[in-house]
Amino acid sequence: MEYSKKDSKQWARDKLVGQWTTMVTPFTEDDELDEEGLRRNVDHVLSLGTKGMGFSWNMGEFWSLTNEERLRLMEIAPDLVRKRSMLAFQVTDTSIKDVISMASNAEGLGYDFVILGPPYMVTKTEEQVINFVRKVAEKVNIGIAFYNSPQFGVVLSAKGLARLAEIQNLIAIKEASFNTQTGIDTHLLAGANAVVSVPDEEIFFYEQYYNFHQQVMFANTSDWRFDTKTKHDYVKFIDLATSGELDKARSVYKDVYPVKKVSRKWWSQVAARTGGSLPVQMAKYWGGLMGMAGGHVRPPVLELTQEEMDGIRNDLAGLGLINP
Fold it and tell me: Which candidate in 222, 240, 286, 297 could, as Cys together with 245 as Cys, close a disulfide (CB 3.0–4.6 Å)?
């Protein structure tokens, strides 16, 4: 860890830039961690120009892993990345003791920061979440990024997120409520005290109207779903946008948008069929079509239907991302 607790916010402001990826956790056919597949995935994603990697994030299915699998993933990821990018691990759990233990372990293993969402049982109010995060932050030195997402069962308001941003080592906020106004308001209310990232590419086009700047996109799957080894339009767009070169970014986004449109179509359809659940199965299948290791998903996530698989495959072929 390159910073002290008291300097963590300035470190984040200086270092958290560009595109961060979310790595899925691939499983073998016999339902074990596919460590070799994960190694290949890491090498491929880093070849796209990604600045940072998030493991065990929501798309990484942390909630389906055993404690042993989660700790194993935490241990091997630094060896796979080998300091070729920055590195973060999600430590969300319902037990505050386990959260503190995982965060301390991540610090010892050389992670740059951890990400923490609300405990997803019992927690019903903003005050509970703020109290929980504050108590974790008091016990660890590593920087914490807070994850605001409906997948955890409670979504904080921009005002609540601004209160979190006052915590000494709360260095960043991933505002993934998918409410555009909440994302904008979080930038305005919390952005002075924490690096704010809204995982929607079009957030950059609101900057000039509301006078904020998003310096990092973390973490999403769009780099390895949208880009190939020879065509890096998505990462190029994020690099330009996070650097403040919005005119150039708009020009590149014209090439990104057709893929974004297809992604939005299938993300929305699969999520709607499963009651709003994060469409991990869609991301894993999409990545698999493009050569990534993914494998199945574990219950309670439902696998894609044959119609969905055929539709995604046909759409990606139509975009020229895969062979027909």
Answer: 240
